[in-house]
Amino acid sequence: MNELRVALFTGNYNHIRDGVSLTLNRLVSYLESQNIPVLVFGPSIKNPPIDHCGELVVTPSIPMLVPGRTEYRIATHFPGWAKKRLEEFNPTLIHIATPDGLGSGAMKWGKKHDVPVVASYHTHFLSYAGYYAAFLMPIFLPAKWHMKSFYKKAIETYVPSQSMIDELEEIGLQSNMKIWARGIDLERFNPKKRDMEWRRSVGLKDDEIVVSFVSRLVWEKELRTYIKAVKNVQAIHPNVRALIVGDGPALDETKELLPDAHYTGFAKGEDLARAYASSDIFMFPSHTETFGNVTLEAMASGLPCVVADAIGSKSLVEDGENGFWAKPKNEDDFTEKLKKIVENDELRTAMGKKSREFAMNYQWESINGGLVENYKSVIKNYSGS
Q: What is the C-alpha to C-alpha distance for residues 83 and 110, in angstroms, rounded to an integer?
């Protein structure tokens, strides 16, 4: 049977608005637009922030017991009543997005019922250990072993970038990995959304060079490196201003460390697009990304980008072309790279134009269309587990 019927298992779908949830919702929307049946299994909460796409079968979960991350949930297992719903759906392909208890149960179900299983890698969990050492270090080695074992069982694993593939191979994760990049809404994120009146209304002057940071405000996004680099450049160029878009547990301390920044709070849609386009430079020091959705949004908005020389963002930014790479966790290097762009108007303009040009290569329809072709190839060539 070559008909494509997809069962998607994920730890993030509608209970928190993050890159994983938005990417998977967009995938489900695309599958449905192509008349491909899809059923989603994952955790949820009362009054979730995302009006999700498709049918979601809500499975048992518990809060993640890590300080500042309790809004995330861990799907604990794949219960019998959910398995019955899956059997009724009769999938021809299982796609697992999270290697949690639910994902492990789905993997076993697929093997038992001779249904091909693929996986995708969204969150580089192992890179978080240094930020939450007291909580994660005791389980680091077991988690690493589990992930190696889990992804080895998948027929294919879809990874956002070549740099992420290289990183996973370096730590010994063996799987048939293929790139499933992320796309961008080029109409929404657009240099045309630049709004000088909005800038003035929030106290950003016309002659100020605005350096934006867009993310959930948690320390593993390397907020401290951003803060220190901006302050270092401000000491030389007082016309540099910080624009911080997002909310999270690090907000109050960030305001103490960088009181003269403008804080928008959480933003989405047109408000988010306007904030990007009304900036002059985007800086994102995080080195825990698997892709860098915010970097792509900044590029589409026509901004030069200063990012960590690490997996994710550096697959999008070409060093010296549309921005610079800086050494991870190195405030001096980030300071130097930011300073170069601040001090050269022509360079800033040229890099911004290059960013927009590069972003044109990341259109959702072709990216998700490529994933569907991978799905079909897996089903066609499947010979049983």
A: 11
| Residue position matching structure tokens 């794949």 | 78
Kindly report the CATH number that applies to the domain delimited by 6-183+363-381: 3.40.50.2000
Q: Which two tokens stand for residue 47?
A: 């009054």
Q: Exposure string (b/e) for 193-218, b if CB count within 10 Å is 16 or more?
A: bbeeeebeeeebeeebbbbbbbbbbb
DSSP assignment of 89-121, as one string?
H--SEEEE---SHHHHHHHHHHHHTT--EEEE-
**Is residue 59 scored above 80 in pLDDT?**
yes
Whether 191-359 and 6-183+363-381 are alike in CATH topology: the answer is: yes
**Distance between CA 212 and CA 281 in Å, rounded?**
6
CATH 3.40.50.150 fits 191-359, yes or no: no
More confident residue, 213 or 138: 213
pLDDT at position 69 is 60
Spatial contact of 370 and 180, defined as CB atoms under 8 Å apart: yes
Task: Concatenate the DSSP letters of all residues of 209-262 into one string.
Answer: EEEEEES---GGG-HHHHHHHHHHHHHH-TTEEEEEE--STTHHHHHHH-TTSE
The CA distance from 385 to 382, in Å, is 8
Domain range annotation of the chain? 6-183+363-381, 191-359
Q: Which of 21, 26, 9, 29 is nearest to 48 (CA)?
A: 21
Q: Hey, which residues does 74 pair with through a beta bridge?
A: 62
Q: How confident is the model at residue 125 (pLDDT cuts 50, 70, 90)?
A: low
How confident is the model at residue 190, as a pLDDT?
Answer: 98
Range 242-254 average pLDDT: 96
